[in-house]
Here is the input.
Amino acid sequence: MDTISVELIGRRAKAAARQLGNVDATTKNDALRAIAGELRSDADAILAANEGDVADAQAAGLSDALIDRLRLTPARLEAIAADVEHVVLLDDPVGQRFDERILPNGLRIHKRRVPIGVVGVIYESRPNVTVDVASLCLKTGNAVILRGGKETTRSNAALVAAIRRALVAAGLPDDAVQVITDPSRDRVLELLRLDQYVDMIIPRGGAGLHQFCRENATIPVITGGIGVCHMFVDSTADLGKAVPVIHNAKVQRPSVCNALDTLLVERSVAPRLLPALATDLAAAGVELRADETALPHMTAAGERVVPATDGDWGTEFLSLVLSVKIVDGLDEALDHIWRFSTGHSDAILTQDPAAAARFVDEVDSAAVFVNASTRFNDGGQLGLGAEVAVSTQKLHARGPMALQELTTYKWIVEGEGHVRV
Amino acid sequence: MDTISVELIGRRAKAAARQLGNVDATTKNDALRAIAGELRSDADAILAANEGDVADAQAAGLSDALIDRLRLTPARLEAIAADVEHVVLLDDPVGQRFDERILPNGLRIHKRRVPIGVVGVIYESRPNVTVDVASLCLKTGNAVILRGGKETTRSNAALVAAIRRALVAAGLPDDAVQVITDPSRDRVLELLRLDQYVDMIIPRGGAGLHQFCRENATIPVITGGIGVCHMFVDSTADLGKAVPVIHNAKVQRPSVCNALDTLLVERSVAPRLLPALATDLAAAGVELRADETALPHMTAAGERVVPATDGDWGTEFLSLVLSVKIVDGLDEALDHIWRFSTGHSDAILTQDPAAAARFVDEVDSAAVFVNASTRFNDGGQLGLGAEVAVSTQKLHARGPMALQELTTYKWIVEGEGHVRV
Here is the structure.
């Protein structure tokens, strides 16, 4: 597909979307099963393509962490195929009828849930995203244009070839899933301005990618993925539970957007919470950046605790670093969060229902947690069965985006020759 | 407010939004009543300011139609005040709790409907939009930054001054409603890039304004307002009703986006429909641009019928012009609409349920009509009680946007020290 223009990819995607929009759930599920089958039967070729990408990445001196992300193994490929089969089991939201009513003039109106149309997804080096996004888009009747990282060009070409064969076998248009393999960044710019054909852009990557998309797209962009996450521990919090929850929010997977960045501690609880917390987190390898009031309570962390600087507030660390600040109470915590949160995931640990209620009312984030880890802001964890992105913008969808968030609706208005008066 | 920067307006709006987000419905309704009261008690000053705008517009040689749009009269101002009181009667969607459930691990989750935050609205010369948008945003707890046409600078300043006095009287922050009065287009560019403070941009105007916003904004833009609207009359249509519906769709208010632009007629029905239709529409002053097959059936329109050119398909006329094309049947009609529709409002007139079903399935527009005028694509007409814009994009909202579409949601997750496994 290298030789065709992004404009042509867009045109083909829109034509495929037209065909796909009214395909029934059974056919789409058959196609998903066929994709899982092709991924398995074509495993040798896919893994060989991936080995080529890995070899290039090693030759280019990419970090071990990056290489690990892009590496496919037989077990990982099988897990990807199994994930596609899992999508078969999810409910298809397309075709749902809602907001039905009859107006006083007799007009019968309702809304019907329909695919968005053509979705462009721009992501980085994980080849599993290629299959994951393609299967969720297919399930919801959307055509998708994929643009992965240049490190995964061969892997993505092999994966998409398998997917397209499965689509054809299932009687669906192969242009429902296309990939832009030309590594030039100009192709991304072209995709971002293809508003004639593309209905939504989902960037999956760091802050730079999101900003690049926002600034250059003429198509609606789902902004997300950037989480400066806070947790406030008030004086009534159950301290026996606080350390495990903070530990989980920071340590379980520090490289992701719903990991904790800043801990806010009510002054009166600091002497009871911070020594044990410092011991626990230091043992887990966390670097603690504490404000001057918190610092004396955290000496148990030894050299793992350092004084915080201004740059430690409002920073997404994406690593085993936690900033810690003492606040006078809920008001100061809310002010800090209002100022520094990116609106992703913020939490309170409290036994005071009034404090929990105020926190939930006043924190303006995609997900607000009471006595739970911020790590739950995830489509799978919140019971959606899947996730294509986590949105931190306010329009369309907020928080985890699953199948329903890959749909829109149309109004259907039925009359008997009705005219507007 | 002329002397403060757009950046400062944004910062103040965001601070006001924080206050406004949790104000109860009663307080917001009291503020709306106060606005209606201020508009009435300040009528002399508002009308005097408007007379200044009208005098300037006349001196600048603006068209009578434009001057009529910007002119306020005592009756029009009273109607605007009454509209604000009407908003009091609508249900406040903010605070609604939905998608509630308890996960197997005991986490209690639900979504709560909340204001979007700060809304920027860019519009042209109708001063009623100023009050309309401000009242709908206030009802939904959003702060709003208004940017009207330069012809209405004085009127808008007077209207917003009245609104802000009412907000203060009701105990709400006056910065919930601000207006950018500096006429430089640079201010619009600044507003479009204020993503730190503004959550949504709504352009209300022509295609050029929408494109300018899409191309320059780093904030999500609600695109809409451009309607190339089609109506397909198939061979089973009730012809006694067809002429009145087509007449209504074209003639009732030709200058708006849901007015009919292109009529598609199934070949076999043309000889029975088109002569009577031509007579009717010609009498109403409609210019008919007919393809060569339709033309012979429309001679009754005399000099009002002319041959269509390629430019007459896919054109939004916004005036008493209708293009007419003969098609072989539903397939050709669907192809034409797929190619030329802007996804606003498209209709079929048919007595065949299978044809109606296919049309509804396959036409990908915000509103699809069966045996009804396209003019019903309007928040008031579809029973929403109000309308801030009509969206033709796929994200967030499609078709008329009313109060609910001025809100988003947040996820609320409550546990007892839950950690992610």
